[in-house]
Specification:
Largest sheet of chain A: 6 strands, mixed, barrel
Number of domains of chain A: 2
Number of strands of chain A: 14
Shape of chain A: elongated
Strand order of the largest sheet of chain A: 3-4-9-6-8-7
CATH class of chain B: Alpha Beta
Strand order of the largest sheet of chain B: 6-7-8-3-9-10
Helix content of chain B: 25-40%
CATH architecture of chain B: 3-Layer(aba) Sandwich
Radius of gyration of chain B: 17 Å
Strand content of chain B: 25-35%
Structural class of chain B: alpha/beta
Distance between the termini of chain B: 18 Å
Oligomer: heterodimer
Number of helices of chain B: 7
C-alpha cells in the first residue's frame, strides 16, 4: 500500500502545476461550501436567537383563545393577574425571567405622516427587556411609571422624521373594541439591529399600555426566558397545571425551523452543483493522465497488475488530490469563516414579522457541518476519479503497450 | 522438458471488412531453459507471437499451453496472474516506470506477489548486481543511458523468478556495444538461472547468440531449428 501511495504521489508530481491547480479547484469549491454552510447556519441561528430574544422567548404562557395575528385585547383572550403568575414562574428552577407583555395594534401619527404600528407594553426593568435597554441609541429608556413616554425603533423614527422629544399621537384598540388616542413624547430611539422589528414596534411601559387599552391587570402573554434552551421541556412540564396554554420556542418559531429545512434542501442542491464542477476538474486531470501514461499502464499490465490494481492506483491519485484539496480548502474556508464570524456580513433590512433576521449575519461553523461536507466532498471526488480509473483498467495490454486505442 | 506448446495458432486482425493474418497456423514447442531467437523481417509476426506466448494477447484460433496448462482461453485477470508469476518481459522501448528509481522498478513485480521486505531487498540488490547496475540503483530512468535502462529492464523481468522471459527487439534502440552487453547479460543469466529466454529480432548480428532459431515470414514458421548445445 505504501508503494502504491508512493507511486501515486510521484505520478501527481510529474505535472505539479496541473495537480496543484486541480487540488486548488477542489479547495476553492470546498472553501465555498464551508462559507455557505456557516453563513446559512449563522443566519438560521441568528433568526432563531433574535426571535427568542425579541418576540417569542423560550416559553410563553397565554390564553388558549389568544390569536397572536389579531392582537386580541378581549379579557377572555388574555392572562389574568400576570404579575402574580410571573412571580410563581420565576421561582421555578432554570427560569431566568418571566415578564408580562401586552401587545396591541395601533396607528402612530407624527405631523402629517402616519404608520401602522405594533405596541409592545413591557416591564422596563425586567431582565427580558435588556435587548431594548442595550439598544437605546438616543434619549432615555422607559421608566415603569412613565405615563407619556414611548420608545420608537430607528427605522420608524427615520421614516417619520422623529427625534427624541418630539410629540406624536398614538391610537390603539382597546379591550372593549373602542379606539383610544393619546399624545406621547418620543422618550428615546432604540435599535435591536433587526429591521422587521424596529420598523414596526413601539415600546410602552406595561402599566401605561394596560391603562390605554383598558386591560388593567391583564397581559397578552407571559414571556419566559430560560437559562438553557434545552430546559424548555422540563420547565414547560411544570406549567401544565396552569389554566393557559404553554408554548415552547420550537412551536412559536416553526416558520424558522421550516425555512431552515427548506434552505438545507436548496443548499444540498447547491453543494452538489459546486462539487460536480470541481469533480469534473479532477476527472479531466485524471483522464489526461490516462492518455499520457497509456504505455506505462501497458507495462504495469505486462508485469502482472490486475485491473483492480490499476483502478486502485488511479483512485490513490484521486484520494491524494482530494486530501490536498480539502486541506487547502479547510485553510481558506476557515480563514474566511473566521473573518465572517468576527466581522459579520451586513445584509441590511431583511426579514419580516415572524421571521426576524439581524441586519448582520455572523458565520457559524459546526464540527458536524464540516465533517459532513468533508465526507460528501470525498465521496463525490472519489466517484469522479472512478471513471478515469476504469478507463485505464479497461485498456488492453497490447493496445496500451502500443500507446493507444482507448475504450 | 516442454515449457511451451503452440498448436495451430492464428491471429487475425479485422479492420472493417478486411482480415489480416498476423499469424497463420503456427505450431511449435519450446523446452525449459532454451535461449531461442524468433527472427524474421518486420511484419512477419514475431511480436504477435511473443504477445500470445506472454498472455498479453489471445489467439484467434488454435491453442497454447504454458507449463502444461492451456492459456488460450484464460480471462483477463487469470492472464495477469500468470504473467505476474511466470513471465517476464523486456521491450524494445526501455519500458521502465519513469517515476521510480532503478531499484524500485526491479522491486515492482515483487510487491505484487507478497515477497517479504527483506527477501525483496536482497533479491533486488542481487539482480541489480547481476546486470551491473548496483551503483545506479537510486537513479531514475531519465538519469540512465539506454543500455543501462535495458539492463534494469532485464533485472525487473527476472525479479519474480519467472519460467520464461520474452524480449521483443531488446537491442533495437541500443548502439552495438550496449546491444552486445545486454545480449551477453541475457545469455549469462539464462545459463546461470536456467530461465527460458525467447527474443525477437531482425538484426542478423544477434542470431549468433541464440541456441535455437525460429524463422517467421508472413505469419508462418518457415524454419524451426532444434536447440544446439554449446
Amino acid at each position: 500500500m505504501i508503494a502504491f501511495l508512493k507511486l501515486a504521489l510521484r505520478n501527481l508530481g510529474r505535472n505539479r502545476r496541473r495537480s496543484f491547480f486541480s487540488a486548488l479547484a477542489l479547495a476553492l469549491g470546498f472553501a465555498l461550501l464551508l462559507i455557505m454552510a456557516s453563513f446559512l447556519r449563522g443566519e438560521m441561528e441568528s433568526a432563531l436567537q433574535t426571535s427568542i430574544r425579541l418576540q417569542s422567548g423560550h416559553l410563553q404562557v397565554r390564553s388558549s383563545s389568544y390569536d397572536e395575528d389579531k392582537n386580541s385585547l378581549k379579557w377572555e383572550d388574555l392572562v389574568n393577574d400576570p404579575l402574580a403568575l410571573c412571580a410563581q414562574i420565576k421561582a421555578l428552577p432554570g427560569v431566568k425571567d418571566a415578564t408580562p407583555r401586552l401587545i396591541a395594534s395601533g396607528i402612530l401619527v407624527a405631523r402629517d405622516q402616519s404608520a401602522g404600528v405594533r405596541v409592545l407594553g413591557l416591564e422596563p426593568e425586567a431582565p427580558a427587556s435588556e435587548p431594548y435597554r442595550l439598544g437605546l441609541l438616543q434619549g432615555d429608556f422607559l421608566a415603569a411609571n412613565d405615563r407619556e413616554g414611548l420608545l420608537i425603533g430607528k427605522p420608524l423614527a427615520d421614516k417619520l422624521h422623529l427625534s427624541v422629544g418630539d410629540r406624536v399621537s398614538l391610537s390603539v384598540n382597546t379591550s372593549n373594541g373602542d379606539v383610544d388616542e393619546q399624545r406621547f413624547i418620543v422618550r428615546g430611539i432604540y435599535s435591536t439591529q433587526t429591521y422587521a422589528f424596529d420598523s414596526s414596534t413601539l415600546l410602552l411601559p406595561l402599566a401605561k399600555a394596560q391603562a390605554m387599552t383598558r386591560t388593567e391587570n391583564y397581559a397578552s402573554l407571559i414571556f419566559i426566558l430560560l437559562n438553557k434552551m434545552a430546559d424548555s421541556e422540563a420547565v414547560r412540564s411544570r406549567l401544565t397545571s396552569l389554566p393557559y396554554s404553554v408554548l415552547d420556542w420550537k412551536e412559536m418559531n416553526e416558520i424558522i425551523v421550516q425555512f431552515e429545512d427548506m434552505a438545507n434542501s436548496y443548499m444540498s442542491i447547491f453543494y452538489l452543483i459546486v462539487l460536480a464542477i470541481t469533480a469534473s476538474v479532477i476527472t479531466n486531470t485524471l483522464i489526461m493522465a490516462v492518455f499520457e501514461r497509456t504505455r506505462e499502464i501497458g507495462i504495469l499490465s505486462a508485469i502482472g497488475w490486475r485491473s483492480k490494481e490499476i483502478v486502485g492506483l488511479f483512485l490513490y491519485e484521486t484520494a491524494l488530490l482530494t486530501v490536498g484539496g480539502i486541506l487547502i480548502g479547510l485553510i481558506l474556508g476557515l480563514a474566511a469563516v473566521g473573518y465572517l464570524a468576527t466581522h459579520g456580513f451586513y445584509i441590511g433590512g431583511m426579514g419580516m414579522s415572524g421571521f426576524l433576521i439581524g441586519d448582520t449575519i455572523y458565520a457559524q461553523l459546526t464540527l458536524k457541518d464540516t465533517v459532513q461536507l468533508m465526507i460528501v466532498t470525498i465521496v463525490i471526488t472519489m466517484l469522479a476519479g472512478l471513471y478515469p480509473a476504469i478507463l485505464a483498467a479497461r485498456l488492453e495490454p497490447v493496445d496500451a503497450l502500443r500507446g493507444g486505442k482507448h475504450a | 522438458m516442454e515449457l511451451i506448446k503452440v498448436e495451430n495458432v492464428s491471429r487475425v486482425y479485422r479492420i472493417g471488412e478486411v482480415q489480416t493474418y498476423a499469424l497463420r497456423n503456427v505450431s511449435l514447442t519450446i523446452q525449459r531453459g532454451e535461449f531461442t531467437a524468433l527472427v524474421g523481417p518486420s511484419g512477419s509476426g514475431k511480436t504477435t507471437l511473443l504477445q500470445i506466448l506472454g498472455c498479453l494477447d489471445q489467439p484467434s484460433e488454435g491453442r497454447v499451453w504454458i507449463d502444461g496448462k492451456e492459456v488460450s482461453q484464460l480471462n483477463r485477470n487469470q492472464r495477469a496472474d500468470l504473467r505476474r508469476g511466470s513471465i517476464g518481459f523486456i521491450f524494445q522501448f526501455f519500458a521502465l516506470i519513469p517515476t521510480l528509481t532503478a531499484y524500485e522498478n526491479v522491486e515492482m513485480p515483487l510487491l505484487l506477489n507478497g515477497t517479504s521486505a527483506a527477501e525483496r531487498r536482497q533479491r533486488v540488490l542481487d539482480l541489480l548486481a547481476a546486470v551491473g547496475m548496483s551503483e545506479r540503483a537510486n537513479h531514475r530512468p531519465n538519469q540512465l543511458s539506454g543500455g543501462e535502462q535495458q539492463r534494469v529492464a532485464v533485472a525487473r523481468a527476472l525479479a519474480p523468478q519467472p519460467l520464461m522471459i520474452l524480449a521483443d527487439e531488446p537491442t533495437a534502440n541500443l548502439d552495438t556495444e550496449n546491444g552486445q552487453q545486454v545480449m551477453e547479460i541475457m545469455q549469462r543469466l539464462n545459463r546461470e538461472t536456467g530461465t527460458t529466454f525467447i527474443f525477437a529480432t531482425h538484426d542478423p548480428r544477434l542470431f549468433g547468440y541464440a541456441r535455437r532459431t525460429i524463422v517467421l515470414r508472413d505469419g508462418q514458421v518457415v524454419e524451426n531449428s532444434q536447440e544446439s548445445h554449446p
